[in-house]
């Protein structure tokens, strides 16, 4: 068994144990439990049916050293606890929990500790029903200090109860929750409905200003074809049918819910009072089956109180699946997996932990247990390109602590209750806890390791304090100084959402905002795809002043989403960003009478806010003056529950405006604005294989997908036809298909290793963590191909980026033989996309002037989404000095994009006037416009770690210098647009002299790069050599080698070796003309003028004729007089040109990767 399989098996065993624990008591019927960890009391109180009349209550509790003696009044309240609230006092407010239904004080007495740690009682109470225990809250109250602790009473078996939500947006807001129970081995079934709704429009409140309004409400069903009512939430009048599956008629249908439970209350002033309601309706037991149905959908409809026949609002009833998150940790020689599951917002979170040494050897696992010190959730996601593991893990920030618990007030790990620790302090909350659950420790009782099952009442996966999208880290003891043992980061990962009970990541929809003037910065919005009602993570990567007018940090900036995308006034010195419109308010929320938005819209009343009003509910922003302080000052993360990226109220295509209340009056209050655009996953495929001189038998593909730079890369490997192979790796450069040996070190070079890992120090294959191998060493990280002819594997790689400057897109994959590690087959890693998603733009700067100063090309490719989003641009540089035998090599050439195209000035001998027509460096976003001569400031701020602060044309500052005469180089640039109003096409690449010289050395125009493919059949003369044929054709046509190439795999003999068939590629901006001239040259044997025009150059030595001729479809060795059509005569009888057309029978293809 492979080590990765062993880890997966261990994880699966914990999943099984988790399921067993949850299914305990199924055979005994319904089992309920309340998990408690507050105010020094930790444990659970369980409820089960003892006999027909009585319920058995059993406690398993323990106190902490800080609170050894406790006395609690205890009882049951109407509404469940909302675990998305992490403030323990706010969570247990009676206004949120409703009325008390039962008090145990009279029958059972106070809950006393010591005394009742492990006690059982019998009580005449029902498990279900209107006043039953299920779905309600257990509240413990200490009257001496006026403190409450609370917990929802839930089922142990998660499959027995379910939750659905109808969330309203306008003109009322809030949710109606439907909870239903169906115990498998008992006759218990139940349905509870609890509501909490508010008016958000003035016209809804103008009814004599009552505290609440009462409304008729019903459940409606769509027609059998939901497409007619898919936008029913926008227009409730599309709903026509009350839900009546049993045909009971008007007033008696299941959908006539108000007739059974009464009217619905809606609060008029949520800032003063709230009026939650609880209903019990046994008729709604059919609801689950209808929610799961594939066709018709259910809606809650609320009627206007003054016009009984008019719909006031409606909301779709959506089944709420359990929320699952997972973090995979793979670094520093250790590997681990932590899974989080929260069945609903009204239940605690279950945690399953499995960690150990990457090698899974016993001694290594014991060393891991000795070294591990703590586990935590951090407040920020990890920076994608932060370098070494320890530095990388530090980018997650401090422990996630939304309640602001001081470090000095925390009890030692495992000695307090979960409310006494920061939300993200997993070791503090879980160490030595939940002893009833299953655990498997390497050093039981003497280690800080977490393993097995735990529950946590302060670790929400939903709501504004969710841990999703944040980072997770493992710390180790630093024993460098034995007298001062500290903690240091060991390994880390991202907390990502996964499908419930499945190993697949949930698809995430991501939007991006890029600021370029007068500040630079990047903001991401992330939300579950097609779930516009779910939480949205807002990640501020950095915000930095960039126009040169301000080098000091500024704070207290308001920010908002506005109605329209920005116009060209984003850089105006007066009335800036006015085109972006007003604050986005699709639900037409209105402030309470006499109140401002600052009073109405807060973090605790998000439902009353305008969608675009972010600063009032999330807080103000700060902008750094320099990049060195940007992370500390401006890097933030928020989670908002009312920020849809899809659906009818989507924020995509609108503006994000940052305000400055202290700026010039002429400019206005708006500092900067930018559009909220799409940001899509990356997919890479290698499946077009080239042989390295051997018989090509490999088939299949390597497919890689990464949702964003904050996510893992998911790999699927499917190789067939393997033959005594071993390693497979990502190599530096793409495959050159016209070479006879395209996989050699002389062309694709070595493994992609941007972090300079020493391969000799790497562990054996699959025995280490991914950071211990070269980034491209896939077989080292996940296992070799030894001894197999077919290889199918799926894995997650924490270090195989498809985004950013370490991306593997545009590089190659090489499969090696086991014998001597010989290179056997290779394929370029190309973008995978569907034509209905995107299209690929290609461009080239061709340095082909024979009297120029550089010879070769720079190629560019970029993916343009159908929403006009732009991917990173992949750049391939292949340059040498002119002259067939010139082997000079120079390094450290800076390079720019300049504003204009170049012409004959590209070959001027005088350096001072060379490339002068190109103008100046391209700066379309006016970077540092206020202080353009401050070169010191510009060089200090512009760089790979702050690419938006560079001029768009300053490519070298972002990517580094290039070499001439050396190896090919591949770069990934996030700021090199090839399409749109700001495009590099038609401009020039200017290369400067070696060793960072400031003199212009060479230049070329950036033009579209086409690729036309054509099949040809050629008569094969004696001693025919494909390379010589290519050289002859290029000479006659006046072409450089990169504009005319032959696929090395395509050549095959025809007609008993009398002919040869080849696939020819015509490339470059003039590919169409080159293909036409090529056809004419082979047809008539002559070409009077070269195919590409080179200004100021005439090659008098160019040959104008070519001796090669095409081969017909018949074998020229046959002496039959029959024509192609089977009649007498000869080819001379055919119409002029038809023979040529038949000989060429070509197919034109634009080489796009189709997936």
TrEMBL record:
Gene Ontology terms: biological process: superoxide metabolic process
Pfam families xrefs: Sod_Cu
One of the record's GO molecular function terms: metal ion binding
Bilayer-spanning residue ranges: none
Domain Superoxide dismutase copper/zinc binding: 699-821
Name of protein: AGAP001623-PA
Organism lineage string: Eukaryota, Metazoa, Ecdysozoa, Arthropoda, Hexapoda
